[in-house]
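User: Predict the complex with manganese (II) ion.
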Amino acid sequence: MFTVKPLPYDKKALEPYMSQETLSFHHDKHYQTYVDNLNKLISSGEFENMTLEEIVQKSANNPAYTAIFNNAAQVFNHGFFFAHMAPSGLKRPADDLLKKIEQTFGSYENFEKEFKSAALAQFGSGWAWLAENENGDLQIIKTSNADTPIAHNLRPLMTIDVWEHAYYLDYQNRRGDFVDAFLKHLINW
Ligand code: MN
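Assistant: Here is the predicted structure with manganese (II) ion placed in the model:
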């Protein structure tokens, strides 16, 4: 049985950049629903005793397991996303990762620019990520709907949820403003 990871901060802690109302719906309703659906879908089946990562990897690209993949990936993605925000967390990565980001993208500011571009270029629902491949190379990717780096042998390092449910109550159609606020005020490396 999977459970929702409790938020590591108060629901009001991210205001005014992410409202209590958004977090209530997003964490307590959307994320909870993915967890509930996943638990129902895997009960008494071959996935029952696997880890979340194993379920995602095993169900990826298999049309027989689309519903399991979508819910498992969303459980992973949301747990990761909520854990990487904080009102006054680490707004820049620690030395080693920062150095690697600067080497890969030229500067931290340029990383922010490219991360924002990916978040804006994701058409419809999805996610933007900073991820690392098996060789330790960094890349910015976007994924559609529930898709997730761990289905592609990539290790996620940062993400932003750009489904409308993540920002519509606070920013309506202004996804770019949400991404800016995330990068400046919400991110927690
Ligand atoms: Mn979401």
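The domain at 95-186 is CATH 3.55.40.20 (minor pseudopilin epsh fold).
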